[in-house]
Design brief:
The protein has 449 residues and is mainly α. The protein contains 17 helices and no strands. It is found in: Membrane.
């Protein structure tokens, strides 16, 4: 590390930036750098560029500063059904009780009483949520009787995570894996077609410019709302447009909005066209995200251990090293060969896994994700506050060993955002369905994009 670089890092941290040596038997480092997301378990195929996209200049999806002026026009976001929260994997009954329920479910299946069979399988999982036999039997039922091969494949993966040598789960996974891979690739190809269609639109069209402006406000609104900010969309818009305070709202909530907008502008102006991303760039994003809220912690790695729900991030003493490894991984050949949506989702997941900051990790991760997407010609993608439970559930599933549900979730959000832009010409109709699902969702452990 050069002396100049050393000194620049020192300005961003309360302690001198010193890379620790890699400790081979360090659990916290191995857990993070074992790179589940890059291993064959997830079968992430290299991305093959299509339609000559690299020769197309990606448009600027953020509105000009001059376009952000006070207005009474709003796009309504329709509420959708609430999603289920993540399951707690706590045994609620004995193994014998659970296996008895499975046997009864199998009998109901043979009698073609599929609704009763499904309820019995779900009851068995509630009793013993991580029993490999129950997971495998339920997966077989979903695959055979409901044709839900994506969820079935996930259940086989979960069974193999608990019991790697489970023979029936191994056979089932070998059968479902290529089918699921093909389904995922088809979905990503559809998203690619929509991206190309969007790039080729006339971006000077008044309807598209208007939607671009509205999406900008919605992006800021949803990103801070996921973290608990109580500002409404119209209030968020007022803060961004006028810099005026909203009565009854805290200074922190105002500053969260201003910080997020500052970081988004910084990414669009500086990082989208930068060849390589460094640790300093991630620190610069965080400094803007948190700079108005907590100037001391802004742009600095955490110095103490934190706990995030059921996830225990790596030790604070390992964060510097892990972040160096993270940016190297971001620009590795194996990463760059993946589809841009997969790159963005995996970068988001790995950053929140390391959890390098005391606060602002989620916002920084979503901004980093959007930076990768914008570099590949996608607009900034919105994760809606209504989908917060589903979002956190997908992250939890990744922590448990299967990152594909999280990749599918981000791909789904990408498609929803693309749909809003593509419906800009129909501003009074379809565009009002801003960020709605393109098709009916299965609000369970897994969603298919």
């Amino acid at each position: 590390m050069s002396e100049d670089r050393f000194l620049r890092y020192e300005k961003c941290n309360t302690e001198i930036y010193v890379c620790k040596e890699y400790i081979e038997n360090s659990n916290s480092i191995n857990e993070c750098l074992d790179s589940y997301v890059c291993k064959e378990n997830f079968q992430l195929k290299p991305y093959i560029q299509k339609n000559g996209f690299r020769s197309i200049t990606a448009p600027n999806f953020l509105p000009d500063t001059a376009d952000i002026a006070a207005s009474d026009d709003l796009i309504r976001i329709d509420e959708v059904a609430k999603v289920f929260p993540s399951k707690k994997y706590k045994n609620e009954g004995t193994e014998q009780e659970a296996l008895t329920a499975v046997q009864m479910a199998l009998k109901m299946k043979n009698l073609h009483k599929f609704e009763k069979a499904q309820k019995l399988f779900q009851h068995a999982l509630a009793l013993q949520p991580l029993h490999p036999d129950i997971l495998n039997h339920y997966g077989e039922f979903l695959e055979e009787k409901e044709n839900n091969i994506i969820k079935a494949d996930h259940l086989y993966v979960r069974a193999l995570t608990v019991s790697p040598q489970h023979s029936r789960a191994l056979v089932n996974r070998k059968r479902t894996l290529p089918v699921v891979d093909e389904l995922d690739e088809q979905e990503l190809e559809r998203i690619d077609r929509k991206r190309i269609e969007l790039i080729q639109l006339n971006h000077n069209n008044p309807s598209l410019k208007r939607v671009k402006k509205e999406i900008y406000f919605q992006h800021i609104y949803h990103t801070v709302a996921i973290e608990g900010n109580t500002m409404t969309l119209s209030e968020t818009r007022t803060v961004v447009e006028t810099r005026m305070s909203v009565p009854g709202k805290s200074v922190v909530e105002h500053n969260e909005i201003l910080g997020l907008e500052s970081a988004l502008r910084y990414i669009n102006k500086t990082l989208v066209n930068k060849d390589k991303i460094a640790v300093l760039d991630i620190l610069a994003i965080h400094k803007r995200v948190l700079g108005h809220v907590d100037p001391i912690e802004a742009g600095s790695f955490r110095q103490n251990q934190v706990f995030v729900g059921e996830h225990i991030p790596p030790l604070a003493s390992d964060v510097v090293y892990l972040m160096e490894e993270f940016v190297d991984w971001l620009q590795s050949d194996s990463m760059l060969q993946l589809h841009p949506v997969k790159q963005a989702a995996l970068a988001h997941y790995k950053l929140v896994y390391i959890h390098p900051f005391v606060d602002g990790n989620g916002r920084t991760a979503r901004l980093l994700m959007n930076m990768i997407l914008m570099r590949n010609g996608y607009p900034p993608v919105i994760i809606r506050k209504q989908d917060r439970s589903l979002y956190y559930n997908a992250i939890q599933l990744a922590n448990e060993g299967d990152v594909r549900p999280f990749v599918r979730f981000i791909a789904h959000c990408t498609e929803c955002t693309l749909n809003v832009y593509l419906h800009a010409q129909e501003y009074g109709a379809k565009c009002l369905m801003a960020l709605e699902q393109p098709k009916k969702q299965d609000y369970s452990d897994i969603i298919a994009i």
